[in-house]
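Progress note, project year one: complex with zinc ion.
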Amino acid sequence: MISKEIIDEIVMRNDIEHLIGGYVSLRRAGGNMKGLCPFHSEKTPSFTVYPADNSFYCFGCGIGGDAITFIKKIEHLDYPDAVEFLAKRAGITIPDSQNAQYRTGPKIDKKRIYDMNVVAAKYFNANLFSNDPKAREALKYFTEKRGLSISTIKHFGLGFASDSFDAFSKYMLARGFTYDEMVAGFLCGKSEKGHYYDAFRNRVMFPIIDVSGNVIAFGGRVMDDSKPKYKNSSDTPVFKKSRNLFALNFAKNFAEESLILCEGYMDVIALHAAGFSNAIATLGTAITSEQARVLSRYTKRIIISYDADEAGQKAAKRAMQLLGEVGLEVSVLKIPDAKDPDEYIKKHGRDNFAHLLKNTKSKFEYNVEGVLGKYNLELPQDKINAIADIEKLISEVYSSAERDVYIHAIAKRLSVDPRSIKDDVERMVARKMREGRRAEEKRIKETTAGFSDRINPDYVKAPAIAKNEENVLGFLLLYPDKRKIVFADKLLCADDFYTEFNKRVFSFIESAHLSGDDSSDWLNENFTPEEVGRIMKMKINRMAFSSADDAVLYDSIDSLKRSVQKKEAIKTSTFEGLDAILKRKRDS
Ligand SMILES: [Zn+2]
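Model obtained:
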């Protein structure tokens, strides 16, 4: 175990305002800070940071907790890794002895996987230059078919996986890696009969490297038309497909102005080779909101360069939306007379491509063009429809100043009165806000009031009791001196709780208290960020009442016991006993 002192120091030294401010843009609201929640999509901020007690809570999706909860959730780390992440950030060294003890168990060692991936990448790369006739074909694929130079191949560490079921794994076994490690790292598969086989066979190989320079995964491409064209590592202990991007390790150093988002590895490599070192790609999937958030840390502007075909343009639209939601400026590159950037540069040269990049269309312009292309503006009805479609697009723009600019530009272009467009747009915006608020309220109700309650499934069976339980727990969480009273006099025990979740929370509070620990370090170790959020909410609800009078607590406990007992139809004798205790308490 990492000692409590170290955990406390780690949490204390990671000022929550600064920590979260690195991910979310926060504005002051009274003594607290507010911002748009990074965990659910929203237009009005319900994500609140409480600097006074180093905590946060989102009133929209119910996630909340402290610095550790936040990092667990946003960086997708488990508890020990989140603690390590924050320790590093604060410059605290966790003694090795504590760390090692902490990491015993069946978990595959991440460092072993990182090491294994480096050995594998070197193996695939050396293999590409071997005398194997198939390897020579692979090298030709890169140099002749794709026109890559040897230095580009080396820069990206490209490689070749032999057409064999065990050549790779035999090599790795000889270097001390186990089948279990290879399976965990997605380099080997295991058949139902228990036979192991190399995951990548007869494919050119692209190592995927994270921004810290670790080899985290591989992509493999066939050289002919067989299927699947690309095979990518699935998620492993060191790799999450939904949050990493190809070549970001290089592009991050050239990202100040913009990043070019491409569809495939080969597009990215061709662009880097032509001097556009800010090109990146997703890993064989459509872009996710997590990736969008990662990108927003490195740049302010994304140029989408997807294939010109219908599928590519559809994907571009979706990407525009996701990237826009995290506040990135987005524009779309249209490549005339070629199917992708690679082909265009080969035909027209890099200077012309640079010129295209300079003249990309903003997301708004791109969409407006789409609308105008659909209609014949000479026809009155078509023009009316076009205006309605464009008004809808303008109403989706977040900033009202930006909306004004577009309203005037469009009014001029279609020769109509800007005031009439403005009226329509403002009406749409107002309606959208109303609808948004209603949807948000509904969601809050559903997540907090027990309707399809994922965190406390028993809630819906007995909402009144569960509310009472939360009320009592709120007291215990908020006031250490109340814990003393409750536990010393055994006013409550775990069996007095009806819902399993609340029972679990109570048990943790109790055992922490009995072991003399009045901190809430047990939270992140034993509960998911969603659960921690729910527990936070109990505290926040309690804070809303100014009264911390003992009598209120006794009444809550009393009614909890009554309601639970009523529910379970237990004889009233026990709570007569409680009444006596409570009476004594009040009288004394
Ligand atoms: Zn939220």
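The pocket of zinc ion is lined by residues 37, 39-40, 47, 58, 60-61, 63 (CB under 6 Å).
The first helix runs from residue 4 to 13.
No further modelling is planned for this target in the current period.
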